């Protein structure tokens, strides 16, 4: 991570999280680790819907979306509660914030987690 880079241009999850909570981009690996520990102390957990990375954006597709990967993601949403239980994370829906890189699956999340908050990455980072 480069602390000299404009925060508006960052597209990484760590930059988004660290800037939102601490208004900084860690300049060293040591500071990165300290900020992760501070998130843990604050009971802030980052959980991916899926454990495997999926590319949803596909510039080769006419819709610019990889429909197969999007469907995998959507099918995994109902299993997210079980995943949190396996990780021993007990949290009420109204305390969950979903950071959305894309809005293609927002309605599916809203159906499963109607009391949660849904925010796009840049708005969260800058807010």
Give a quick rundown of the structure.
By secondary structure, the protein is mainly alpha-helical. Helices cover about 40% and strands about 5% of the residues.
List the helices and strands and how they pair.
Blueprint: H1 13-22, H2 29-41, H3 67-76, H4 80-86, E1 97-100, H5 106-112, E2 117-120, H6 121-126
Parallel strand pairs: 1-2
Structure description:
The chain starts with 12 loop residues before the first helix and ends with a helix. The chain is mostly helical and 127 residues long. It has two domains: 1-46, no CATH class; 49-118, no CATH class. It has a two-stranded parallel ribbon with strand order 1-2. It has helices spanning 13-22, 29-41, 67-76, 80-86, 106-112, 121-126; strands at 97-100, 117-120. Helix 5 (106-112) links the parallel strand 1 (97-100) and strand 2 (117-120). It is built from six helices and two strands; from the N terminus they run ααααβαβα.
Keywords:
mainly alpha; 2 domains; two-stranded parallel ribbon; 6 helices; globular
Q: Low-confidence spans: pLDDT under 50, at least 5 residues?
A: none
Task: For the largest sheet, list the strands in their spatial order.
Answer: 1-2
Strand content: 5-15%
Give the N-to-C terminal Cα separation.
20 Å
What general outline do the C-alpha atoms trace?
globular
* Structural class assignment: mainly alpha
Task: Kindly report the average pLDDT value.
Answer: 88
Give the % helix: 40-55%
According to DSSP, the number of beta strands is: 2
Overall structural domain count: 2
**Radius of gyration based on Cα positions:** 16 Å
Major β-sheet profile:
2 strands, parallel
How many H/I helical runs? 6
Element order: H for helix, E for strand: HHHHEHEH
